[in-house]
UniProtKB/TrEMBL annotation:
Biased composition (Low complexity): 91-111
Ranges in a coiled coil: none
Molecular-function GO term, any one: metallopeptidase activity
Pfam families tied to this protein: PmbA_TldD_3rd
Domain of life: Bacteria
Region (Disordered): 91-116
GO biological process: proteolysis
Residues covered by the Metalloprotease TldD/E C-terminal domain: 221-451
Name of the protein in question: Predicted Zn-dependent protease-like protein
Amino acid sequence: MIGAQQVIDVALAEARRQGRADETIVVVNDRVDASLRWANNTMTTNGESTSRTTTVISIVRQGQDAHVGSVRTSAVDPAAISDLVTASQRAAATAPAARDSAPPLPGGDAPPDWDHPTPVTGTEIFGGVAGALAQGFRGRDTLFGYARHALETTFVATSSGLRRRFTQPTGSVEINGKRDGASAWSGVSTPDFVDVPTDRMLDELATRLSWANRTVELPAGRYETIMPPSTVADMMIYLAWTMGGRGAQEGRSALSAPGGGTRVGEKLTSLPLTLYSDPGATGLECSPFVATTSSSERASVFDNGLAIERVDWIRDGVVNALAYPRAAAAEFGAPVAVGADNLLMTGGTASLDDMVAATERGLLLTTLWYIREVDPAVLLLTGLTRDGVYLIEDGRITGAVNNFRFNESPLDLLRRATEAGVSEVTLPREWGDWATRAKMPTLRIPDFAMSSVSQAQ
C-alpha cells in the first residue's frame, strides 16, 4: 500500500492529464483500529485492522454554476486511481448545479508533518485496562464489555495547492456489570488509554448493582430527575446535529422562529450554560479543518480544508449561532460556522453526589438508549432507559426502579433545567460510536417525562 501522500500526487496528476475538471479535491483517510472484548468474566476476542478510503471530488464550473462529482473507493491498488479520477470527472459532467457552490480556497504550504508516516495503534494499548479487568473478573459481578482505539489520519489536498493533515485518536471503554438480574453500565472516552480509571468504573458498577438489592415499581409520569453527564451528552449531541442554519431559515427545524427567521437570540434558560464546539479543547482535540466527501446542510465539499474555529452554539443560555458553510452563510447573511467534532457545555459547581443529596424524591437516570426523533418541529425525542434508573429519597439512593420510555426535547430540557453541576468529560451511551468527545454537566430536570413503563431489562 503506497503512502497517502503518493495517492494524492498520483490522483492530482491524473486529474490534470484527463483535464475534464476545473478543480480537484482529494481526501484520503487512513485508519488503524484495535479492539478488545470480554464476556462472562473472560477475555474473548481482540484484533487489529487497517483501512483506507480515497475520495476524488471533481468540480466543473460553468459561469456561476458549479457541478460536483464525488467518487470514493476503499481499493489500495495504485492502478485504481486513474479509474477513480475518470469516474469522478464523469459524475461532475452530468451532475446538476450544486446549491453550495463557493470559490476555491487558496493554496499554501503543506504542514510540517505532511510527509511523515501515518501513526498506528495495536492491542498492546489495552494492557492497563486488561490488567484491572483481570482483578475484576475475580469479583462477585459478571462483567461484559469492550475497549476500542482508532487512529484516523485524514489528508486533504486540492489542485489549487491547499494541503491539510490531521491524526484523530479515538478511544473508549464500556463495561456492563450484572448481578442477580440487575445490570449497570459505565463508560469513558480516552484518546490514548493513559490513566483509564478502570478500577473506579468497577467500583461504580458494584455500587449501582448494590442499589438494586431493593427494587421499586413506578408508573409512568413526570419525575424530578438527575441527569448525569453521559445522558446530557446524548441529548445535547442530537441538538447539535440539528442546528443547521439552512433548515432553520427555511422553517424546517426546531430552531426556526415562528413567522420566519431563526431562534438565534432566543433565551432558553436562566442558567448560564454555554454549549460549544472547539477543535482545540484540552483533552478533546479534533480536526481543525473541514474534511468532507459529500455536502450537507452543515458542511460543504467546497469548504474542504477550511479552518474550523470555536463556535458557541448557545451562549449564557441564549441561542447564539447556527451552522453555515460558506455558501449558505453568503445566501442568508450569516457568519460562517462549521462545527468541530466535539461538543462541550459549561456547568456549575455542584457534584453529582451534592445534587443527589439535595433531592427529596426523584430519579437518577444513568443511561439512555435507542433514541429516535418523534417531531422535528420541536425536536421531540423518544428513547428508553437502560442499565440503571434509581430512586432517590431524602437525599439517598434507596433502590432501583423499572425502565421507562421517555419523550423529551433537548431544547425543552434546557428551558426547564433548574440546576447544573460540574462539567465533566463523558462518554455518551447512545451516540458513543459516532460522538466520543464530549464534556457535559449534570442537570436537574424537575419534571422529566417518563411516558410509559418499559419491559426492557
